[in-house]
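Memo to structure team: turn this sequence into structure tokens by end of day. - J.P.
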Amino acid sequence: MDLQHEPITVKPISEIAQFQRNLIPAHIPEKYTLKPMFKSIADEDNIQSGIVAFRDFLYSFCDSLISDGHLYAKPPKKPTSMADYPFLYNITNLLVDIGYYGELSANGNLLLMSQKINPKIPISSQIECLRFLALCGFAFDGVDLEAKKFSISESQVLEVSYPDNPALLIGLKALSIADMELRTGRRYWNDNNLLRCDYRLLMAEEADMRDVLADFLHPLPEKIQNFALKLHQRYTDMGLTCVNTRLGVISFAYAHLGKSRKALSERDIYSKRVWEFSYSIRNGYCLFIKAKKTDSYADTIKTFDKSLQEKIAQGYGCYRKFGRERCQVDCQGFCIPLDTSILSISKDIETWLDNEMLGSLKK
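Reply from structure team:
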């Protein structure tokens, strides 16, 4: 069998930017208790104001990527994914380095960076990243952004400011520390605490999963949000464990762990999922049902909407066996888009999940 795959088609940078924009939290609480490690940066009120300022910057950042990103972000000759833009990695690494290594001035209006820019970022990309950040409102004193040849000497101090709202610098500082010191695993383009403005990493108390899910759903119509939150509440009340994963896609996976006393990792829990909400650049917002027991409730399936019956009859599985077909993540389960079409079959989906749950509970 010829196992050569067709070339990957990279999505336009505007679509990647819109995807990332949807991950920015719409609602950040006015007050929450910070982990002690952050209190040396500034008082809680200033840090929280700074995080909101940085969140607002991210909207501008994504909007600039949507309108002008094609001038800066180019895919590599041999992309490895639909969202393979080295520019996004480079500019994220640059922002984290500025926030983490930069020292706040006495009045908090500057971040002073005496360390050289991350050597992992190519010299040619460094100036492009700085120019784009300048387009988004940052200012850099100590570097000529118009120069054809770019370099920063060992002794040179880069002064970084954000004139429209200097509070942003405190937010960038706090979020960069969280990303560098509290993040687990590598930093991926869709698993990026900084570009997601993941303020929950700074919170002393564990975040409520329902609130995290509500943030995840906020770009969707209200009726779809309500349907999804209802499913979350129904099945967590029935004993399923919900885990928020970023293992290639953004997911809220629901698994029945039974009476297992073994400490399970996030990946272990995900592998036991019955169903999940997912958001990916390939499929958008979806509900995946990893149904394995449909034969045991075939008569119930006959009462479902015809379109749902047809989907279940088709089954699901891994498409890589077809050789030239790349992985379509079909092993995730039956894919149902989280759009208005799901509302007309919402009762059938609930019945479907109930029957899968009964099978899981009998194990």
